[in-house]
Structure formats: structure tokens, C-alpha cells
């Protein structure tokens, strides 16, 4: 281990510069304009795996963007870790809120990151995080200390729902066979308070369209006599939460798992400062479902949120128009036992039911995924916890996260294995927001911790 850690120390600069190069490629999976950049990124990842010492490196085509695969199998009797990550990133919009180019990575100091953080889209989610595994692997290979088998699977469609990954896993079961999946794509509580994610929420995502008249109309000539689809859509959306902020879709909570008092107490014992939270977001009051704390609202409770709403005139000045159509994108975060397809059906039925006769509505489902919980008593979890203890000097706190990584439930279903979510980012790193960044402390801490994880896992799994 000493050799591996000193290799890491010696190569810090190189590790950083390589990540900066990776961050310069705009791998935006949602926007077809970036198709070339997507393939270029896949090439970059494949080359980096090869350079680090992986074998059988492949850029595996899918009906969408390719999956990059690589492996190092040292002994069939030893356990196999499948490292999963994603090389695609979210669109950087709104661009004018970035203080530097989203694909021109620069290092800046912040209050939380006094040693500096890399500002770029994808720095924390997930290029900076999966690349820690490539570098930790390089360090173990270079010092001849890889203690078990490792496979890498870095995909390019996580941010758009990983639709092709389920079939890919199904078709490549043998190639992907492993004892566990290791993922660094989540957050820790703070740089001096390590944690391991033991839960992810599921997701149902829909787009709705409300149509009134067959064309835009003069709002003076027709206004008051013909439905305004924006007014109607707003009312429909508003009605989907009651005065306690419960979601009103019939059956929505039916499958929601009841969490015991004891478990809730443990959850709420995690370090969290509501005053700081509000201060950071510049809000006077938090908002959410009655009867639950902020930590519970973002982990064990489902949500319904409008992600975008549009229609009518949004240009300069004023235009008196009665629009024909209104649209919204709506996401529902789900918790264990809620099935995303069922929830999408319930939403669709309800949305159609509450629409007045003066409009027509259309609901188009987008991607979805199931929630996941991972055990805290498995060898896999304990090895990760021990590794974090080695490098942070503190036992990590198990915590359920609010985000979604739909492939985690699929790994369980298709490959029959559990994942460990050992992320190193911070929730405040601006994932999916302007000025996304990843702390240098976090990047290096991850690279240092991963070899310890491999060591403990190989020993404990024996
Ligand atoms: N890495 C995130 C998920 C995440 C972030 C989990 C922070 C826990 C803490 C992932 O890339 C992501 O953004 N997932 C999407 C879902 C996907 C289907 C688009 C999400 O959660 O919105
Ligand atoms: Mn991610
Ligand atoms: Mn993401």
C-alpha cells in the first residue's frame, strides 16, 4: 500500500491534467449536436483504461452511445469488482450563469474548497469521480498491487436515463459477471464527515401537453370565453399537492415503504444544519411534506416536481395572446417499492381525469427507474467503510441519497449483484447546475481511498 500511495503522491499533477483534458470534451448526451464529442469521449476513456493497464478494452456500441469496457483479471479464484461510471454530462445551460466556460476547466478556491476545486460541467458528476477509479487502478497496476479482479463499465447515457444499458447488461451477462458493483457518483456529507450512500430514489418522468383552441388567439377578442391552457395547466399542477404538501394522485403512496421510528431517528441523527442549509440557498424557510424533516423529505419520501413549464409568448415586451398550447416536464422521485411504470400510469390517469372539458391533454412518458437500497452489513459495504476510515480517519455514516441512478436496481435484477455507492462529491458541488465543481481534496481523497477498498475487499471476501 505504501508504494501505491507514494505513486499517487508523485503523480498528482499528471492525474489532474488528464482529468482537465477529459473535462474539455463536451459530452452532452441529451443534445444530438454533441454526438461527435460523445464518441471522442468514449475514445478518451478507452485509451485511459488501456494506458492504466486494462486489458480487452472495448468501445461497445449500443443503439445509443457506446459503453466503454475494460478489465484486468488476475485470478479466477479472487473476487471481481465491476466499476461503473458515466462519461456523459448534463447540458450546461443556463450558460450566462457560469463564471467560466463549462468546458474550459479552471481551478478556483471556494469557502468549502479552500485547496481549490475544478470548475467544469461533469467535474463531480461523474467524470471526476469515475476517473478516480481509473487513476487508482493505474496506481495499483504500476505498483503491482491489484489484489482482485476488476472490470470497468463506463457508459454514456446515464444523464438521459440509461435506456440501452438494461439490454446491454442482459446481452453481456457473462462479460459483466462480478461479485459487486462499485460506483462513485454520489456525495459525502462534508469533507470532514465521510458517508456512504445506501439508498437512491427511483424516477418517473413525464411530459404533458395541454391544448385549448386550435390556434393562438387575440386575448381581447377571445379571452374570457375560451380556455387558456397555461392557466389550466397551472391549476392542474397546483392541485397535485394538498395543503400539507402531500401528493394528491390517488394510489401514489400505496406502495411507499413505512420506515420504523428507530430508523427515522438514526437518519435524523446524521449531521445536518438546517440554518446553514437555508443560508446557503438564500431561502427564509424550507418547504416540504408535513410530518417529515428535510433529511427525510430528500431520501425516504417521494416527490413531484415541475422541471420546466412553457407556452405562449416569452419574447421581449408584451404580446396579448391567448395561447393554444401549454407544456410541462414533470418528474416524480420514488422510494423503494414504488414501481415507476405504475406511477407513470397513475399520473397519466389522474392528469386526464382532472383536465376540464375545455382542453385536451397528452401525457408522454420519458425515462424511469426504480429506487434502490443497499445493505450496511455486507462485506462489500464494510470494506468500503474501512477504506474511508483509513483515509478520512472517521467511520463513514450510512445515508440514503435523494438522487437516482436507475442502473443500480437493474444490476441487482440482471446481474444479481449489489452495488456500493462510495461517492466523494458534495451536494453543494453544483451538479446539474451552473458552476459545477469538484474539490481537489475530494478528487485526491477518492484516488487514495480506492486502493484501500480493494485491499480490504480482497481480504474480507476470502
Ligand atoms: N450522479 C447523479 C445521481 C446522484 C447525485 C445521486 C447526487 C446521489 C447524489 C446522476 O448522474 C443523476 O443525475 N441521475 C439523474 C437520473 C437520471 C435518470 C437522469 C437524477 O438523479 O436526476
Ligand atoms: Mn452521475
Ligand atoms: Mn447527473
Question: What report would you give on this structure?
Answer:
The chain folds into two domains: 2-200 and 373-460, Zn peptidases (Aminopeptidase); 202-256 and 302-369, Alpha-Beta Plaits, CATH 3.30.70. The strands form six sheets. It has a six-stranded mixed beta sheet, sandwiched between helices. A four-stranded antiparallel beta sheet has the order 12-14-10-15, covered by helices on one side. The protein has a three-stranded antiparallel beta sheet with strand order 4-5-20. It has helices at residues 2-10, 12-23, 35-52, 127-142, 165-171, 173-176, 229-238, 261-268, 274-281, 294-297, 340-354, 379-392, 407-415, 440-461; strands at 55-60, 67-72, 80-86, 106-108, 117-119, 149-155, 180-183, 187-188, 195-200, 202-211, 217-218, 303-311, 321-322, 325-334, 360-369, 372-373, 397-400, 419-421, 425-426, 437-439. A hairpin with a 6-residue loop joins strand 1 (55-60) and strand 2 (67-72). The chain is α/β, with parallel strands linked by helices. It binds ligand BES and manganese (II) ion (MN) (2 copies).
The first-to-last residue Cα distance is 19 Å
So, CATH architecture of the largest domain? 3-Layer(aba) Sandwich
Strand content: 15-25%
How many strands, which pairing sense, and closed or not: the largest β-sheet?
A: 6 strands, mixed
CATH fold type of the largest domain: Aminopeptidase
- Could you say which structural class the secondary elements and strand pairing correspond to? alpha/beta
Instruction: Catalogue the ligands.
Output: ligand BES, manganese (II) ion
What's the arrangement of strands in the largest beta sheet?
A: 1-2-6-3-7-18
Whole-number mean pLDDT:
97
Unreliable residue runs: none
Shape call = globular
Amino acid at each position: 500500500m505504501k508504494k501505491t500511495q507514494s505513486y499517487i503522491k508523485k503523480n498528482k499533477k499528471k492525474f489532474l491534467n488528464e482529468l482537465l483534458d477529459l473535462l474539455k470534451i463536451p459530452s452532452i448526451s441529451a443534445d444530438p449536436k454533441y454526438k461527435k464529442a460523445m464518441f471522442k469521449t468514449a475514445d478518451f476513456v478507452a485509451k485511459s483504461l488501456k494506458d492504466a493497464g486494462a486489458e480487452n478494452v472495448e468501445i461497445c456500441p449500443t443503439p445509443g452511445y457506446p459503453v466503454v469496457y475494460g478489465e484486468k483479471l488476475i485470478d479466477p479464484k479472487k473476487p471481481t469488482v465491476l466499476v461503473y461510471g458515466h462519461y456523459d454530462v448534463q447540458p450546461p445551460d443556463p450558460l450566462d450563469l457560469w463564471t467560466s466556460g463549462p468546458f474550459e476547466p479552471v481551478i478556483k478556491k471556494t469557502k468549502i474548497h479552500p485547496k481549490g476545486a475544478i470548475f467544469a460541467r461533469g467535474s463531480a458528476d461523474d467524470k471526476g469521480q469515475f476517473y478516480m477509479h481509473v487513476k487508482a487502478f493505474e496506481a495499483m497496476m504500476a505498483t503491482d498491487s491489484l489484489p482482485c479482479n476488476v472490470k470497468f463499465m463506463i457508459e454514456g447515457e446515464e444523464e438521459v436515463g440509461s435506456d440501452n444499458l438494461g439490454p446491454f447488461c442482459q446481452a453481456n451477462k457473462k462479460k459483466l459477471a462480478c461479485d459487486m458493483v462499485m460506483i462513485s457518483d454520489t456525495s459525502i456529507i462534508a469533507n470532514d464527515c465521510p458517508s456512504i450512500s445506501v439508498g437512491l430514489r427511483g424516477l418517473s418522468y413525464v411530459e404533458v401537453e395541454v391544448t385549448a383552441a386550435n390556434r393562438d388567439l387575440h386575448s381581447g377578442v377571445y379571452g374570457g370565453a375560451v380556455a387558456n391552457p397555461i392557466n389550466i395547466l397551472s391549476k392542474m399542477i397546483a392541485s397535485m399537492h394538498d395543503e400539507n404538501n402531500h401528493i394528491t394522485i390517488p394510489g401514489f403512496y400505496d406502495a411507499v415503504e413505512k420506515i420504523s421510528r428507530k430508523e427515522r431517528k438514526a437518519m435524523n441523527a446524521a449531521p445536518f444544519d438546517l440554518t446553514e442549509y437555508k443560508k446557503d440557498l438564500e431561502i427564509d424557510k424550507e418547504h416540504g411534506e408535513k410530518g417529515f424533516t428535510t433529511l427525510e423529505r430528500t431520501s425516504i419520501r417521494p416527490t413531484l416536481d415541475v422541471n420546466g413549464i412553457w407556452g405562449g409568448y416569452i419574447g421581449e415586451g408584451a404580446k396579448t395572446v391567448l395561447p393554444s398550447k401549454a407544456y410541462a416536464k414533470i418528474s416524480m422521485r420514488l422510494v423503494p417499492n414504488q414501481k415507476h411504470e405504475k406511477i407513470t400510469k397513475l399520473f397519466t390517469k389522474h392528469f386526464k381525469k382532472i383536465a376540464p372539458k375545455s382542453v385536451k391533454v397528452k401525457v408522454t412518458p420519458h425515462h424511469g427507474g426504480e429506487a434502490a437500497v443497499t445493505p450496511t452489513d455486507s462485506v462489500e459495504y464494510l470494506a468500503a467503510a474501512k477504506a474511508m476510515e483509513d483515509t478520512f480517519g472517521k467511520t463513514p455514516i450510512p445515508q440514503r441519497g435523494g438522487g437516482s441512478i436507475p442502473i443500480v436496481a437493474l444490476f441487482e435484477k440482471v446481474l444479481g449483484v449489489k452495488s456500493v455507492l462510495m461517492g466523494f462529491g458534495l451536494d453543494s458541488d453544483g451538479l446539474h447546475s451552473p458552476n459545477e465543481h469538484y474539490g481537489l481534496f475530494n478528487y485526491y481523497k477518492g484516488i487514495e481511498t480506492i486502493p484501500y477498498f480493494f485491499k480490504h475487499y480482497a481480504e474480507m471476501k476470502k
